[in-house]
DNA sequence: GTAATACTTCAAGTGTACTTGAGGTCAAGC
DNA sequence: GCTTGACCTCAAGTACACTTGAAGTATTAC
């Protein structure tokens, strides 16, 4: 007995709204789950999937891109190559995003250290040097 | 002679559209620049500001939050404290975003290494272990 | 049996962040 | 002087990612 989760429990555990879960299903990011009396029942694996979606979203992927990364391109010659091209491109973007975030973190930390009341003020100090 | 930039040059160098620059100005993220014959002229510093905005956007800040981080709260008692509270909170979020992006990167790299044609397929492999 | 609560579908509404289009202005080159 | 291209304003339109609301159904508790 795998103890299936209701949509409400999934939402609570994953930190999203039930409406978002239905929306992701509609958008092809989540599998259509089992139903009991018409109601969705999820296996715990869904939580990992939702975490993955959340991570990808943070990385700046659109839901359409996430769908493609999840499922790949429809079977056709070169589907694997196309998927890898997309994944590689996204990998570059993820790395850029990380670098950019590190800079933003630096700036925030600096501003907090020097007790500025705004980045504007702090940036002036930083950029004068 | 500081060689001011037109909005078109700024857009090209910063990798944004001119419409976005005007929009940011309207939204209070960019200072109102000098005008020559009614046309905006920017100092090179604007490029750093646009990079900062881009980074903050990637970090998941809304334009409203970026405005606050840039300018601080309007002068009032406790403005500095409120700004620091916001900045600290955002610092935590930036760190979380970085961690999440690292995981996404791991996943992408793993998927590329094992030559999967989709994350779905690869995730099955990963999660079976 | 009935009330409460969580679920269902479907269509329409919302917020954010821009973009686009209409109609006009400005500076440079021919 | 006229054309070209980049700029201007302002209002309206668009894309994405959900959310909300209406109207109804199912499960559990009493």
Question: Mind explaining what this structure looks like?
Answer:
2 copies of one chain form a homodimer. Chain A is mostly helical and 129 residues long. Helices cover 66% and strands 7% of the residues of chain A. In chain A, strands 1-3-2 form a 3-stranded antiparallel β-sheet. The longest helix of chain A has 35 residues, at 79-113. Chain A is flat. The relative contact order of chain A is 0.08. Chain A binds a DNA duplex (30 and 30 nucleotides) through helix 2.
SSE map:
The structure is a homodimer of 129-residue chains.
Chain A: E1 5-6, H1 7-14, H2 18-26, E2 34-36, E3 39-42, H3 45-58, H4 63-71, H5 79-113, H6 119-128
Antiparallel strand pairs in A: 1-3, 2-3
Chain A binds a DNA duplex (30 and 30 nucleotides) through helix 2.
Features:
homodimer; 129 residues; mainly alpha; three-stranded antiparallel beta sheet; 7% strand; flat; DNA-binding
Concise account of the structure shown:
By secondary structure, chain A is mainly alpha-helical.
